[in-house]
Amino acid sequence: MTEDELTSMLDEVKATTVKTVNGKPYISDEQTIAEMDAKEMEEALAEFLRHAKTFVLINDPFVHVDVGRPGIEWWRALGWLALSESRLKTAFCGNDRRPQTIRHYHKWKLKMLEGKRYRTDA
Predict the structure, then answer these.
(1) Is 41 inside any structural domain?
(2) What does the pLDDT look like over 21-70, one tens digit per residue?
(3) Is 119:107 a contact under the CB 8 Å cutoff?
(4) Domain total in the chain
């Protein structure tokens, strides 16, 4: 490659345009869906962790929690935990119910319950 060719390649100017709709940047459907999925995952995880913490408190025999009728509150906490776990599983796995995906989800869920950072294996 000669110096003139190299200089001409470096002198090229590329113009990028941002598509706008009604004065706002255009966002593709894929980007919108990805943002919605991320928000759903964040909300599902927060809900699951909140219900798991509540269930652990009610289930622990050494922690006195004033909940009124202990029997029914335990069942309610268990029900809310099951519902939030189902929502989290749907957000994480989608329609993929292969054993490998479920194992990966379970491993990730336990890390979230322990409060540890999850590192993917690269």
Answers:
(1) yes
(2) 666 666 666 676 677 778 888 899 999 999 999 998 888 777 666 656 66
(3) no
(4) 1
